[in-house]
Design a protein that fits this description.
heterodimer; A: 3 helices; 35% helix; B: Amidase signature (AS) enzymes; 15 helices; globular
Chain lengths: 95, 495
């Protein structure tokens, strides 16, 4: 599976990572190499095999649907790069 | 006596016998840690916290209320959230992050009386096998090649700081995490013991997530006994992690009888890989003979899907990472990039992540986004999850034949030089996990035990793979191997 620079640009955007035009070609080469390695999986006969969803078979626990924590606004905001008046602040999203 | 060189078991016995205090032990470790800058193992020292915890431990010792880790000084991998203490997962994107909470595993250790010396270096987001992807720069292995012109070697990764710190006696034990081999490979590279428990044995709550279906915390220590003591303190059910198992934690130390008579040890033929150095093959044979001499029975077994574990891992782990690392967007914590006039929030996300993530993390997040994207999900991700079912089935079939544990090499090489892999393609580095990664894929426990030195005087380890929830029995087999190998080597102090 070979990745061209257009695909590399699309993947970078999907991953929300800015990549300069100059870096797209080496990135495409790296990604292609890794995907070639993954292509070994095509040798395996997986017909009739269920994909794994849980490595340890166990029923997930249930709990009462009640509030167990809260009132920690300061804790939650204190690591934010920009917090104002009790909110996370971000650049304007809607014009 | 240099207290920092003690094993956990020796320190525990000395503390309880009143030979020294937790404060004296902690001061010895703090001094050794402060003098270890050339190793770059610690990325943060917490002497005030350590002294307070040691004073508390001394009170408990006097009062006779002595939990398992009372007064034992530890280093903690930077992946564990530690309340009000720098927690960056080795990444620039978490610059300045101080969690307002404590991870369950570290809280369990503190509740068990342990003392925190500081945070330990690691590959960025635990993605790497050499510690070279860390934003703090690489850790240097305390071991050097005999006649090797003092070249700096890697301690392995991703728990490289933890491994180097234990090997260098700048803590008595360290907490690590293992997603594809990140405890066992560095343990092998530094001549120490490292345990990856069964998936679900230790809570993942408060551990910065890499690949949630594979991540597991475990102890790194100077002996199997120390690892058993420490694992007992780390493990246990946690309502905050729905994948943590609600089953009793056995007394792992009590299981260490060293008696392996009648145990069936599987030797999987698929682990004899092309290009494996002769000395690793020889070490593996010697380890098998040691267990045989101790009364175990060796059985040739087949794990036919072994060769597909690594490519399947490099689909599943990046897929989960791309999802887990989506939270680093410059809004709630860590680094935020500056945007220019006219740019919007998408530019902020994309530049924040471009500036904050290193090359390997970007590569894996993008691979993950690709294999999960429309049109490729079935071809890559679903197929890899099916292969994962087959990998697990291989182990189930071996254990159903009556195999008690499986013996393999821990790593395909000894420690290599820092920078040696820099210009090679990324797959070369990924091959470091070739013997360890199937264990994570199948959710099994594994342990690396130091068994010998290579021709250059560097440590080599062997891995034992146990049955699900069978850590006690696995550690007992590891204990028998440790006794027989009698690995008494130590890195000479040069720093």
């Amino acid at each position: 599976m070979s990745i061209d620079t257009d695909t590399a640009r699309r993947v970078a955007h999907l991953a929300r990572i800015e990549v300069s035009e100059a870096d797209l070609a080496p990135l495409a080469k790296d990604l292609s190499r890794i995907l070639d390695f993954m292509d070994e999986l095509n040798e395996v006969d997986v017909s009739g095999v269920e994909p794994m969803t849980s490595v340890t078979p166990m029923a997930l626990k249930q709990r009462q649907d009640v509030v167990t924590d809260g009132n920690r606004q300061q804790d939650i905001l204190r690591n934010a790069p920009d917090a104002r008046e009790g909110f996370f602040a971000v650049p304007k999203v809607v014009e | 006596m240099t207290l920092n060189t003690l094993k956990i078991s020796e320190a525990r016995d000395g503390l309880q016998a009143g030979k020294f205090t937790a404060t004296e032990l902690t001061e010895s470790c703090l001094s050794a840690a402060e003098a270890s800058a050339p190793l770059n193992a610690y990325i943060a020292h917490t002497p005030d916290l350590a002294r307070a915890q040691a004073a508390e431990a001394d009170k408990r010792l006097v009062a006779g209320d002595v939990p398992a880790m009372c007064g034992i000084p530890l280093g903690i991998k930077d992946l564990f959230a530690t309340q009000d203490v720098q927690t960056q997962a080795g990444s620039a994107i978490l610059q300045g992050f101080k969690p307002p909470y404590e991870s369950t595993v570290t809280q369990n250790l503190w509740s068990s009386g342990a003392v925190m010396l500081g945070k330990l270096n690691m590959d960025e987001f635990a993605m790497g096998s050499s510690n070279e992807t860390s934003t703090y720069g690489p850790v240097v292995n305390p071991w050097r090649r005999a006649g090797g012109a003092n070249q700096d070697l890697t301690p392995g990764g991703s728990s490289g700081g933890s491994a180097a710190a234990v090997a260098a006696d700048i803590c008595l034990g360290a907490a690590g995490t293992d997603t594809g081999g990140s405890i066992r490979q560095p343990a092998a590279f530094t001549g120490i013991v490292g345990v990856k428990p069964t998936y679900g044995r230790c809570s993942r709550w408060g551990i910065v997530a890499f690949a949630s279906s594979l991540d597991q915390a475990g102890p790194m220590a100077k002996s199997v006994r120390d690892a058993a003591i420490m694992l007992g303190a780390m493990a246990g059910h946690d309502p905050k992690d729905s994948t943590s198992a609600d089953i009793p934690v056995p007394d792992f130390e009590a299981a260490l009888t060293g008696d392996v008579r009648g145990k069936k040890i599987g030797i999987p033929r698929e682990y004899r890989v092309d290009g494996m150095p002769d000395e690793i093959e020889t070490l593996w044979t010697q380890g098998a003979e040691m267990l045989k001499d101790a009364g175990a029975q060796l059985v040739d077994i087949s794990l036919p899907h072994t060769k597909y574990a690594l490519p399947a891992y490099y689909v599943i782990a990046p897929a989960e990472a791309s999802s887990n690392l989506a939270r680093y967007d410059g809004v709630r914590f860590g680094h935020r990039a500056k945007i220019r006039q006219g740019e919007g929030i998408t530019a902020m996300y994309e530049r924040t992540r471009a500036e904050g993530f290193g090359a390997e993390v970007k590569r894996r997040v993008m691979i993950g986004a690709y294999v999960l994207s429309a049109g490729f999900y079935d071809a890559y991700y679903v197929r890899a999850q099916k292969v994962r079912t087959l990998i697990k089935r291989d182990f189930e079939q071996a254990y159903a034949q009556g195999i008690d544990a499986i013996l393999t090499p821990s790593t395909p090489t000894a420690a290599f030089g820092l920078g040696e892999m820099a210009d090679l393609d990324p797959i070369k580095m990924y091959m470091q996990d070739v013997f360890t990664v199937a264990v994570n894929m199948a959710g099994l426990p594994g342990v690396s035990v130091p068994v010998g030195l290579d021709q250059q005087g560097l440590p080599l380890g062997l891995q034992l793979i146990g049955q699900p929830w069978g850590e006690a029995d696995m550690l007992n087999t590891a204990f028998a191997l440790e006794n027989a190998a009698n690995f008494a080597h130590h890195a000479p102090k040069w720093w």
